[in-house]
Structures are given as C-alpha cells and as structure tokens.
C-alpha cells in the first residue's frame, strides 16, 4: 500500500533537461507519490486509533478495503487539484515560461540562460501547505493513539516516518522561501536530492525493515 516510488521519480526528473512538459509532470509525480505514501500511513494510524478506542466497547474493525476506499478518495481529490494546477500553469504559458531563466553573471548585457529547474510559482506554497496539513493531521492521530500496542511496534515506525517528513520538508520549504533568490538551481537540486534521501529512503526502511526482521525472527524461532 505504501509506494514512495513516484516521489523518487519526481527527483529523477531533474536529471532530464528542463522543459515545459517536465515542469508540468513534476507536481504530478511529487503529489501522487506523497498522497499514496503518507496518505496510507495516516490511514494506518487512523485504524490503530479506532481499534484502540473501541477495544473495551463494541469492537469496530476498519478493514483493508475500507482503507483502500479512503485512500482512493484522497487520490481523486489530489488528481482534481493537480488538474487545476496544470490548467493554471498552461494559462501562465501565455505570458511566460515554466523553465527557470537565470541571469548570466559574467554577461554584461544581462543575458538570461535556461537552468535545469522549473520556475517557482506561488501555487507551490499552497501545495506545500497542504502537504504539511496532512502530515500534521497524521501527527495528531499519532498523539491520540500513543497508548495503542501494535505488532512489531508498527505505530512507532509509522509515526517516525511522518515526523521525519514533516521536519525535513518544513525546514526545506522555509529555507527555500527565505533564501530562494540566493539559491542557484544546482543548490536547489542538491537540496531536493538530500530531502529525498532523508524522507523517502528512510520511510522505506522504517516501514519494511521491521516487518522483514520480525518475519525473520519468527522463522528462526519456529525452526
């Protein structure tokens, strides 16, 4: 159910030459990967909370099918948002380009050259705020279910993955907002790569390694 692969493709797109098509595809890869990965984590925390609160009363079991339906609804909402984002970007093309044009420092006539990054847009702030709100909601669920016991400490690892994403991404967004004019495209690309490693790679490890270790331990005990 967890799939940060699409987010990794967002970073991989930066290895391609910047173009209008690439700049239109980047938000789709990033946001679809984000909602599939962290939306699934938030829903898992929601299930832990529901099962914990209904343990002593009438037990309410949230099935995997229910979680899949909720996740599909979240994906549809993101698809609608991305469609509006793309439509707005296409309108923006009538007046400017999506590729980030940088002033050539050694040029006397202020000649501009195309960088390998897409132009920062104000709509990006709305997208980033939405990401942080989703992560914040996940952290709220984590606090509410802090006393829940889960197999192989699944809840703790889910919370750790959301907390790391929240701290790393919020720090990245704040630094980029304040120091965007001082950053060059190469610096931003390096920052994106580092953020990807600190969030996506760590999330994969936190989600799958404990399960693999638990299964390996069970096999050794059974043997």
Automatic annotation (TrEMBL):
Molecular function, one GO term: G protein-coupled receptor activity
Record keyword Transmembrane helix present: yes
Coiled coil: none
InterPro entries: GPCR_3_C, GPR158/179
Keyword annotations of the record: Cell membrane, G-protein coupled receptor, Glycoprotein, Membrane, Receptor, Transducer, Transmembrane, Transmembrane helix
Domain of life: Eukaryota
One Gene Ontology CC term in the entry: plasma membrane
Membrane topology note: Multi-pass membrane protein
Location of this chain's protein in the cell: Cell membrane
Presence of keyword Membrane: yes
The G-protein coupled receptors family 3 profile domain, residue ranges: 19-213
Transmembrane segments annotated in the record for this chain: 28-46, 67-90, 125-145, 157-175
PANTHER family linked: G-PROTEIN COUPLED RECEPTOR 158-RELATED, SMOG, ISOFORM D
Family classification: Belongs to the G-protein coupled receptor 3 family.
Protein name as catalogued: G-protein coupled receptors family 3 profile domain-containing protein
Annotated organism of origin: Anopheles melas
């Amino acid at each position: 159910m967890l799939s940060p692969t699409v987010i990794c493709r967002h970073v991989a797109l930066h290895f391609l030459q910047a173009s209008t098509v690439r700049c239109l595809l980047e938000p789709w890869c990033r946001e679809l990967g984000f909602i599939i990965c962290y939306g699934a984590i938030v829903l898992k925390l929601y299930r832990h909370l529901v099962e914990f609160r209904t343990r002593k009363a009438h037990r309410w079991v949230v099935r995997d099918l229910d979680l899949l339906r909720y996740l599909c609804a979240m994906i549809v909402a993101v698809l609608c948002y991305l469609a509006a984002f793309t439509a707005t970007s296409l309108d923006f093309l009538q007046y400017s380009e999506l590729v980030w044009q940088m002033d050539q420092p050694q040029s006397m006539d202020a000649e501009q050259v195309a960088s390998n990054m897409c132009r920062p847009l104000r709509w990006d702030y709305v997208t980033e705020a939405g990401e942080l709100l989703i992560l914040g909601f996940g952290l709220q669920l984590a606090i509410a279910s802090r006393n829940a016991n889960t197999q192989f400490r699944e809840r703790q690892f889910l919370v750790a993955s959301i907390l790391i994403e929240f701290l790393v991404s919020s720090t990245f967004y704040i630094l980029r907002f304040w120091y965007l004019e001082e950053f060059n495209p190469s610096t931003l690309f390096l920052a994106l790569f580092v953020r990807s490693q600190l969030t996506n790679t760590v999330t994969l490890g936190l989600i799958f390694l404990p399960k693999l270790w638990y299964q390996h331990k069970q096999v050794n005990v059974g043997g």
